[in-house]
Design a protein that fits this description.
Blueprint lengths: L1 H37 L18 H8 L3 H32 L5 H13 L2 H15 L5 H26 L2 H9 L4 H12 L1 H16 L3 H6 L7 H4 L11 H21 L8 H7 L1
Helix pairs in contact: 1-12, 2-12, 3-6, 3-9, 4-6, 6-9
């Protein structure tokens, strides 16, 4: 009986592992296919699938035929500064929505979230007219400002849940011990919500990094981002699939590397369990 049970348990574990591997292959296949296309020469793009002569010509074309490094730098600067500004503004807002009860709190929170629901194409015309009046078109400041529409609502809603999970008794006990509100906030609360800060910051960075509509219509030659720069490889008469795949792979690398570096912070820490206990 025990032997049969252990055999069934091993078979179940093997089946679960196989299913997880199949799902992982399915989920990662777009990245794998993009990697394959980026190393394929043009003359083998449609004639072979997995067996071909690898080449670096697609990457050479991406960097030689455009200022792709410059557009990557623009994208990095705008995304990082937009996320940093969102953290400065969004952390106090999330704390207020998560810790205090006041009239209209849920309405304010839903208003923030509704900014995320609105399609970018819906607000681009009024934003374009405002930017024209303020002379912010094709400027780094203008792109950072508009990227707040992408990152700030998401950040506030994520961090609000983390602040709500913290016990108010710990905060009150620290103030009774003589700590000021600022000391409690920076030395106790922020370290406890560090996993939330990292997760929210990474998600906001990904959304900002991948933004296309705002960068296309509100940017320009001086502030062109890599997501917009890739469109130059899509000609009216032909598409250089290898060049597009190489550019897309290069654009995806910062997000992949950043996610791998901070993956241990993307899950809530043990401190949340300690607080709830």
């Amino acid at each position: 009986m025990n032997q049969n049970g252990s055999t069934l348990g091993r078979l179940g574990s093997i089946a679960k592992t196989i299913l997880l591997l199949i799902y992982a292959l399915f989920a990662l296949f777009p990245l794998l296919w993009m990697l394959i296309l980026s190393f394929k020469p043009d003359n083998e793009m449609f004639t072979t699938t997995f067996f071909f002569t690898p080449t670096l010509s697609n990457f050479q074309a991406v960097f030689s035929k455009s200022d792709f490094l410059g557009t990557l730098w623009n994208n990095l600067v705008v995304s990082c500064l937009a996320v940093a500004l969102s953290l400065i503004v969004g952390v106090p807002a999330a704390y207020a929505l998560g810790r205090f009860d006041f009239k209209g709190k849920e309405d304010i929170a839903f208003t923030f979230l509704s900014f995320k629901f609105a399609p970018e194409i819906l607000v681009i015309i009024p934003l374009y007219l405002i930017y024209q009046q303020l002379h912010l078109i094709d400027s780094i400041v203008g792109l950072i400002w508009v990227y707040q529409l992408i990152s700030l609502p998401l950040l506030i809603w994520i961090l609000r849940g983390f602040f709500e999970d913290l016990s108010k008794d710990m905060e009150a006990a620290a103030q009774l011990d003589g700590y000021s509100w600022w000391q409690v906030f920076f030395k106790m609360l922020l370290p406890l919500v560090k996993p939330g800060l990292v997760a929210a910051g990474l998600l906001c960075f990904i959304f900002c990094w991948n933004s296309f509509t705002f960068a296309l219509l509100l940017g320009g030659g001086h502030t062109q981002t890599s997501t917009v720069s890739m469109t130059q490889f899509l000609a009216s008469d032909t598409v250089h699939y290898g060049w597009v795949a190489a550019a897309a792979l290069i654009c995806a690398l910062p997000e992949i590397i950043l996610a791998l570096l901070i993956q241990k912070h993307l899950v809530r820490g043990l401190s949340f369990g300690a607080v709830k206990g």
